[in-house]
């Protein structure tokens, strides 16, 4: 059983799978944010994308400022705990960016419905909220079972989200796309399964034997993956558990950068459009900065999968 | 060595897998067929097991779909919610293999009871994941060792796993084609999808159309281009015997 | 933050949490079947239980033969690949055991609804099946979104399953109930979250540091667990990945034992009622048999969780 | 050292946690309060973070709910589907902590926009998981540093996270009580559940009822048994300063 080799470059993966007008899901909850992929989308000048991302943060602001995005599907639009997303706020406040608002679990349930090919997914949120009034995709269903009090029970539902392509960042994968994540695993598996195509960006492409020594660690199996991109430090300024820490200073700085449209444009020209690829961006950040983000060791205890004697 | 029924069925089933990427299969004949296909017509085809194992590399031949040897060295073990929700219902399976106690002319299957469900003559195991395999695979292959009128029946005692025709009659649009191939010790029945009955499309050497029709509990249609099945080739037999199941656990 | 110590004996756990008339979920898909817990339920002579179990196999047959069970909720009633469950078949065929039939995913979705406190869970099974005709709990809902063809879309749903107690077997837990499973993880987490109370039976109670070295391996967190029972070899004849192999001979033998009601009664009297506890059952099986089920080593490669420097 | 506003609010909030087993909390004041409660009134209380971390044992004070130091040495990291589906919606949380830009007399919260949603004066981050915390926790505590009429408003510009009264009006039975405590720099507002308005139940030493009413955008009711909040005790302050946040990351 030869495993198909799906490794490719970021440039080729984005060129092939992210097309103008596509719906692109970029997931990763604080941890493992696919920043490098976002930058490459900006470099290639994609237009008119619908971006789906639970926590629309720095990379989303950058994609919007790069004029790549016409529509945003999200449940949190803020620069983590560090402030605001300048460009996103300006455009939403000016009515220049379409915004579909959900709660976190609403987004999760949209991915769950998408991954499971369900027409809708029920959840106990939205009751009494103004969000359904501004988002007609959030609807109600009557349960065919009686409520605990014997009466009729209603529940809100959300529709499936099926991105044209989902891009996630992970610690490691083998060449065929078996992807292992530890620390926060987020909604990555569901976002991948919900998508028509999936790109996995990893810190390392590892030998098959590494993956196969711990199959429970594989969060996304190869059959759901179309491209594997090795891109070390691809999540910066986000962190990758066991690889590098969060660049808190960058997040704080971003509130300043993005507050000023001209400074923001300059930043994109210098750091994204002015770098050939993510390796150049990483080098430009400099080893001193990376040294500050280095992490020490805390190894998991191995478990025995056993072997028939 | 003469060709056993298992060798015959495994070889014939393997040829039908050309073009498939993901196959949902149980242990035994289906895995023999897929393993042979990996060596012949579908080198990249992947077996997904009901237990959630993907990309298994077992050091020994597994005895069940959840055998410990399937897990060790595998590429992924999915949680059950992911296997049934994202892989099966998510329409990631091209070909599912199923067996059954009874099959009807549209490929609907019964694995629940013989007799009345409320007072069964024989209580069978039930669906397991068969209903999900039928509802969500691109198409379904059924391998039945014994081709007789009790199993190939005009009317099921109970429909556990319905094909797309019954789903449509129930007002629900099915994903896949349902059963497209039934491979038996007499030949191959086939249908292409919704609305079609199973037709006899091929017989094993020495088997007559009348024999198959007599062994089938409904008035079996015969394809206009009925062919004779080529017996397993020397290469197929050698691979089955030397590479796939050298201990002859399932080739018995 | 002192962690509450929830360790207790099997006898006490069953006595406290499994009461006559209760709905008891016993999950574990071929792997990690809570056999020892089932035997203790028989020893304590519980009556009128509703047993929920996807793959009702040997332990279910034993519980039924032990006159503990009046109702069964299941999606597969068979002795794995080894034959039949004699007592279960006899009683169902005689109309002496109430049986609620589902498919595997139907059961999974019942647990998902139970764990998520949903009034129902939708799934793409049952369309055209005779199962809904014999199981009125399986119903239909109309989607509030148009079908791909623009028309109305219907989908089957199942109701939540909320067992009074769920019992699962696992490789290891800490004293407060953080439970780690590898190999097949089955539906155990959902069955535990769906339940009012949960008992976790483990091969080993381990030091807190072992669990904390690999938090992603924790399938069931302490807050969902009420009792932790150390019970080595508690899954026999099922297997525990990395601990012992499946006792295939026992499964084959069971088809013979259970085919004969008298022999079955004798087996229960000797092996269950005749043993004081699971340690006695394990000893009675004998070291020779356990030696046959011993497994070798196949250790996972450790991963680095990292430490801030 | 004089008592900071953070110390005051953390100490007061911690006392309200007696009896709680599971608390859903963000980084900052809520975690300070829970950490202090673990040392005082609720030794076994567990914090569950929105990131899925349970039983965290961070070697350093975390900067976000998803900080790497929360994961290393923790007891469990749950998948997001489990955290939101089984823990939150599964009603496993006794007390949830929330903040907001605006709160009304029934404890409904706005964290989406100031102004009209379609053309907002200020676009705020939105719900995140706040709506789920409100809908599914047994009760909700709100900590607001600044008590002023713009935040404590008669009419929300937009209701992101509705309490149980709004849920009922929408025809849906809520699980919990919604907001039961609002702890501010002026005092504590409280309500016991569905149908009740927030009442002023306690003020900080030196704060008058009129000051609180003037700082509240609706006609605030005053509890018949209004009390004065005991300032942080020496023990509480010592534990906050020496054990909980010795680097004064959040006590600033």
Automatic annotation (TrEMBL), chains A, C:
It is an enzyme of class 2 (transferase). SMART domains: CoA_trans. GO terms for molecular function: transferase activity. The keyword Transferase applies. Its EC number is 2.8.3.-. It holds the Pfam family CoA_trans. InterPro entries: CoA_trans_fam_I, NagB/RpiA_transferase-like. Belongs to the 3-oxoacid CoA-transferase subunit B family. PANTHER family: ACETATE COA-TRANSFERASE YDIF, CHOLESTEROL RING-CLEAVING HYDROLASE IPDB SUBUNIT. This is CoA-transferase.
TrEMBL record, chains B, D:
Pfam families: CoA_trans. Keywords: Transferase. Its EC number is 2.8.3.-. InterPro entries: CoA_trans_fam_I, NagB/RpiA_transferase-like. Signal peptide: none annotated. GO terms for molecular function: transferase activity. PANTHER family: ACETATE COA-TRANSFERASE YDIF, CHOLESTEROL RING-CLEAVING HYDROLASE IPDB SUBUNIT. Belongs to the 3-oxoacid CoA-transferase subunit B family. This is CoA-transferase. The lineage of its organism: Bacteria, Bacillati, Actinomycetota, Actinomycetes, Pseudonocardiales.
């Amino acid at each position: 059983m030869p495993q198909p080799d799906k490794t490719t470059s970021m440039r080729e993966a984005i060129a092939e799978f992210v097309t103008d007008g596509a719906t692109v899901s970029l997931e990763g909850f604080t941890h493992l944010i696919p920043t490098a992929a976002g930058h490459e989308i900006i470099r290639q000048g994609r237009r008119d994308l619908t971006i789906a991302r639970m926590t629309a943060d720095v990379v989303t602001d950058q994609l919007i400022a790069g004029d790549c995005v016409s529509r945003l599907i999200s449940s949190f639009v803020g620069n983590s705990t560090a402030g605001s997303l300048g460009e996103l706020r300006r455009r939403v406040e000016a009515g220049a960016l379409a915004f579909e608002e959900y709660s976190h679990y609403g987004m999760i349930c949209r991915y769950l419905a998408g991954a499971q090919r369900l027409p809708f997914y029920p959840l106990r949120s939205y009751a009494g909220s103004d969000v359904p009034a501004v988002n007609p995709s959030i609807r109600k269903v009557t349960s065919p079972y009686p409520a605990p009090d014997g009466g009729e029970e209603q529940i809100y539902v959300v529709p499936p989200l099926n991105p044209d392509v989902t891009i996630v960042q992970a610690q490691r994968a083998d060449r065929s796309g078996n992807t292992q994540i530890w620390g926060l695993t987020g909604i990555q598996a569901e976002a991948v399964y919900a998508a028509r195509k999936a790109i996995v960006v990893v810190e390392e492409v590892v030998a098959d034997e590494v993956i196969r020594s711990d199959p429970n660690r594989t969060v996304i199996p190869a059959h759901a993956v179309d491209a594997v991109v090795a891109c070390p430090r691809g999540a910066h300024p986000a962190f990758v558990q066991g690889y590098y820490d969060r660049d808190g200073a960058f997040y704080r700085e971003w509130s300043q950068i993005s507050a000023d449209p001209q400074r923001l444009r300059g930043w994109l020209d210098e750091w994204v459009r002015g770098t050939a690829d993510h390796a150049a961006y990483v080098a430009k950040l400099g080893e001193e900065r990376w040294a500050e983000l280095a992490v020490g060791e805390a190894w998991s205890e191995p478990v025995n999968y056993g072997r028939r004697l | 060595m003469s060709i056993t029924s298992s060798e015959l069925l495994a070889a014939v089933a393997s040829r039908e897998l050309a073009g498939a990427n993901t196959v949902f299969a149980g242990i035994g004949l289906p895995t023999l067929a897929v393993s042979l296909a990996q060596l012949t017509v579908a080198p990249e085809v992947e077996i997904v097991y009901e237990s959630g194992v993907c990309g298994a590399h077992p050091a020994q031949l597994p005895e069940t779909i959840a055998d410990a040897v399937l897990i060790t060295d595998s590429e992924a073990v999915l949680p059950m919610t992911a296997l049934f929700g994202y892989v099966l219902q998510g329409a990631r399976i091209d070909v599912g293999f199923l067996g059954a106690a009874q099959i009807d002319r549209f490929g609907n299957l019964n694995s629940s009871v013989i007799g009345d469900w409320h007072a069964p003559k024989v209580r069978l195991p039930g669906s397991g994941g068969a209903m999900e395999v039928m509802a969500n695979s691109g198409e379904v292959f059924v391998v039945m060792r014994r081709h007789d009128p009790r199993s190939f029946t005009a009317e099921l005692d109970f429909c556990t796993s319905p094909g797309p025709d019954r789903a449509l009659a129930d007002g629900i649009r099915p994903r896949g084609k349902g059963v497209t191939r039934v491979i038996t010790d007499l030949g191959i029945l086939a249908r292409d999808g919704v609305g079609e009955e199973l037709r006899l499309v091929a017989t094993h050497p020495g088997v007559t159309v009348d024999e198959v029709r007599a062994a089938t509990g409904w008035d079996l249609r015969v394809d206009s281009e009925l062919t004779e099945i080529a017996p397993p080739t020397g290469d197929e037999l050698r691979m089955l015997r030397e590479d796939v199941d050298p201990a002859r656990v399932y080739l018995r």
